[in-house]
Amino acid sequence: MELLFDFINHRNADLRLISEQTLDSILRHLMSELSSSRVVVVLMCEIKRNGAARSLTAAISRLAHVVKHIKPNRAGAIGVHLIVALLSIARRPEEAVQSALEKNLPSIFAVLGHELPSQRCDGAIALYELALENLELSGTANRAAAIIICQLSSFLPNILRKAFKQFSKNLALADDQNGKVGLVGTLNSLRLLWPIIMAHKTELDIDAIHNMIRDTLRCVYSNRSEVVVASLELLERLLFYIPQLQVSAFFPQLVTTPHGALLEDDIKSQLTIVSSSAYAASQLSSLRASPVDSVFDAPSPLTFGDCTSENDRPLELSPDTENADSEPRTGSSCAEDEEILDPLRHNDVFDELDVETRSLEAATASEASSCHMDGTAIPISLPPDISNASFITYTAVLLARRFLLADQCLRLIPDREARVSHKILAMNCLSSLALYLPNFFDIPLRPPGGLGVQCLRDIELFLCHDDDQLKAATITTIVAATQASSRSRSAPSTDSPWLFMKCVLECVRSRRAQSSRALLSALKTAGRVVYQSNLTDRICEFACENYRDNYFLLRVAVVEYLASIDWCVAESSSRCLPDDVINVYLRLLADEDPRVRKAAADNLPL
């Protein structure tokens, strides 16, 4: 078997292909004879050998396929051996090896990981620390490290706590200039870890979770596209867990966390030290020095102490300054011994001092401005002036102002100022937030609102955007906001019905596959809104017209929407299932794509 693995790395492509086919035949024969243990042993030996990249990736990928046949009583021991082997494999620089880890480790740990807590595995902590180091690498190695941390945290609670604490610190000290790659790795790892964090929410501090959310919102102000994308993807993931986050009393614009306050105070203290040094240098440069005691000289407000005092004694104001004119001036022995510089004769020394003072002042000013300037670096704290509401409303306004709306009525942020990919991710986040905001369309971008202040209803302008994915995300957001408004016990928003109607009619008119799929997918759970709008027949007809579309996901959306209609309560001209709908559904049950057939069979209303 080892010889076959060696030939898999041969430079001749035909020989590599024959070796892989032969290896697969032998493994299938062993599996058919119920010798799965022998197969696992063969593959683990090759993995622990850590040979050539092609041989190693072949062994890892095949282990992912046969791992489900491992006996439960042996899964723990095999998992320990795998972790020990990963300590050397994770250090390899080959992209193929890192890609194999990224792709296959989740399915492998899904079987082996459950037995790890019962095993004594000292290599797990070392593997976690190695993965933390790999988060500073870019590309596939970064993603593979995030997968390793996620898998270890899923089954080992002590590693989950370590990772949560470390990533909280990384986000609190987020730097997109010098630590961009590490910050992206942290955000991607948290995106994978967030379901696990929510599952163990009771074991973690809710305030620490809120601080992590606040720091994620800070990262969307980065001027690095990779950081913005990673932070928006993490934000999109965590917004699925809004009911579990206890955000009703969470105000992210208010910095109340000790760590954040200490961080801000530390920066302020550094600025104070720099500015005080600059002030002392400027005071020193303004001291008057003259080799001759002239009667025309004004009495100096500074007096030097005894020459026997220490050299580092600070200059002090004389207590007899007010009586300086009435008392005769007496020469000091210290003044006679010390050399007094004449600024006219030593002009170069004072010029250098002035230049240094000006450079210190300029550095202080630039550092102070960089800490609070939006769009150039991650700010210390979130802007408090855009909204005084709690997390859900504040986040919606922040995302709209940062990526979507120009803070002027009927004006959008141009694509040259905010990337379309960022807008799509921000709109996806808004669709999750809109489900919890009954007055979503009426929320102003600047408190307290009023005439001339742009509101979130202007997102409907994106229905005319050229990008289909952005238009689809806008449709999902409008439908979600309309659902929230219809569920509200208070007076519903007056803009919701006509914005929903405009969204549906624009989608029907454009006939774009992405938009049509987004509309039908969103309407699956919005039946009440459709029934109240008397649009059941129109949307049903629209869905039946798309069952032959080449885009298979649109055909799946058609199946799911048709199956979700409750004809008993729907405001439709038909009180029973129409014949056209039955014919379309039967055709989709016999669709050429197996994924469409499966969706039709799973959603078949019986």
TrEMBL record:
This is Huntingtin. HEAT repeats lie at residues 581-606. One of its GO terms (cellular component) is cytoplasm. Pfam families: Htt_N-HEAT_1. Residues 303-335 are annotated as: Disordered. InterPro entries: ARM-like (IPR011989), ARM-type_fold (IPR016024), HEAT_type_2 (IPR021133), Htt_N_HEAT_rpt-1 (IPR048411), Huntingtin_fam (IPR028426). The lineage of its organism: Eukaryota, Metazoa, Ecdysozoa, Nematoda, Chromadorea. Gene3D superfamilies: Leucine-rich Repeat Variant.
